[in-house]
pyruvate synthase
Amino acid sequence: MGPPQMSLVEIRWHGRGGQGAVTASEIVAKAAIAQGKYAQAFPSFGVERRGAPVEAFTRIDEKPIYIRSKIYEPDIIVVLDPSLLGPKLAEGLKEGGMAIVNTEKTPDEVRKLLGREDVKVAVVNATKIALETLKRPIVNTAILGAFAKATGLVDLDALLEAVKEKVPPRTVEANLEAVRRAYEEVVMG
């Protein structure tokens, strides 16, 4: 008997315009495809301006994906901006789902803010990592390292390759460092 079949995993990304949530969702999809999986990524824009809340979506599966709608009941939420934390963010998150959050808070503090005791939480200070590696508070590549470690959906090497393809050439090394650091520094609870 082979390994168990993976079923569809749906991820909803929450950030603000300019933080890179859409790019992060695309990088995860690229990494999954590079590993022989099927994936799709797409944004949902409200008011398109820097700083406005943004949602993006990623689906990953072992078989072709035919759904094309927004994700209303994600398995995983990824939060790039901790100011967005609150019960509204966890709406629709499947029971026992996972939240991966850019924050200085502990997993227990995040669960309280989300109003959900049933969720697994992974936290990383992606803002600090981004400021130290990129010299800018663009947290998407740092949150990707935490995503890879916390979920196991994409391996670190595939993720690093996808980052190389997607970020501006002059920032490749700094972005790769951000991914690696977050992969090591993420705290799960």
